[in-house]
Amino acid sequence: MEPTARKKQVLIINAAPMLREFLKEKFISENVSVELSDGRLDSVSKMVRTLPDLIIIDVQSSFDEIMDLLERKMTDPNAKRIPVIVSGPEMERAAISSLVQYGVVKYFSKPIKFDVFFEAIGKIIRVNLSMDTTPCVLEIHHNGNIVFIEIAQGLNREKISLLKYKISEMIDNYKIKEPKVIVMMTNLQLSFVDGINVELLLDTIIADNRIQRRNIKVLSLDNFMDEFIDGHAEYVGVKVIKDLTTALGALVGKSNGGEATDIIADSILAGDDDETTGFGDIRFGAEGGDGASLSSEGSLLNIAIVDDDEVVRTILSQSFSSLGIAAEVFDSGAKFAQAIQSKDYDLAVLDIFMQGVSGFDILNQLRSREKSIPVIVYSQAVQREYVIQALSLGAKGYLAKPQKPEVIIRKAMEILHDRI
After folding, report:
1. 295, 302, 331, 400 - which has most CB atoms within 10 Å?
2. Is there a contact between 385 and 341 (Cβ–Cβ < 8 Å)?
3. How do residues 303-316 score in pLDDT, each as one tens digit?
4. What is this structure's pTM?
5. What order of strands is seen across the sheet that includes strand 239-241?
6. Residues 158, 159, 163: CA angle, nearest 5 degrees
7. Per residue in 27-68, pLDDT tens?
8. How far apart are CA 16 and CA 280, in angstroms?
9. Residue of 100, 18, 98 whose CA lies nearest to 58
10. Torsion over CA: 104, 106, 112, 116 (sign)
């Protein structure tokens, strides 16, 4: 009788909550044992006691504690042989190379490119980790208490699994009370073979008990979605809606009184001065670091500011630049429309009403691009029809003028953070 193969074991140290839970769920699903640790003493103890096949260390900000941990690892004759993967901020090549002596075999600059990340782990521990490679663009952002989940190209189970933690993190970070969700899937053509992934998507959303089924609207033109949700007892209350206007009206109209314009202003246009945000640390596909032994060349964020008001352009440009973010200004929609023919931007802050090419024209043009540019509309126009038109055309946020510069910057960082 052949002996049973030992289950592979991974020790995860100091990972941020969302990353920790995502990795834990992934490894358990792949029959890989997981140990979690926070703090130097606990990490050293578990490392020496369990002698895992791999150690994954997530660096939040400072390398001081990780260096002490790595040095202690090398003093133990058994632990010193354990390979280490580190994820953290971008580092100089020389700094990454210096980690090799401590058994660090891969360094992943954030945001992490997870298909490459799991491929590297599989090779190290000699386990063929499955990875859904279905092309999928998934983004999550919010306006007020409305959470928008946009999905295009396809349904990727890895991204959907990560979405569960992104939703909870967003609700917690932005203190969203009675969250309402619009799932935007207008470009997807689905069939019964997609049913299991649709279930995973909806189960992921309702996993957070702060989200009530009656507050979930699915924006889809596909008859399959209508029939699937209507015939599923688990999703009673979830509604499939054909257009964004109806979806927004159904959500904001329930708990707000007054005119439609006031509802939109209260639910979508308000800027929250107490929001806190940060750069994301999780990505799939070509958007993240490649996990090479040397750090990837990171490019500076490049923001486009498109507004015919010189004061607005100057204030926003200086505010972004003070944070080390490149800001390119355009005094007309026509000039920006010309620029995007040959250049990409990480995000655009866009006015609506400008001479010649309007903000709506720009949004229409961006929709036809293979690679989208996230847009924040920053406008004096607060009429309901303008807000809904901008959101329908793909704007990720709508802020009414005037706002403090930090409000626009927070919204920009939130949108960049929440691209999965």
Report:
1. 295
2. no
3. 999 999 998 999 99
4. 0.68
5. 137-143, 146-152, 180-184, 216-219, 239-241
6. 120
7. 999 999 999 998 888 999 999 999 999 999 999 877 777 898
8. 11
9. 18
10. negative
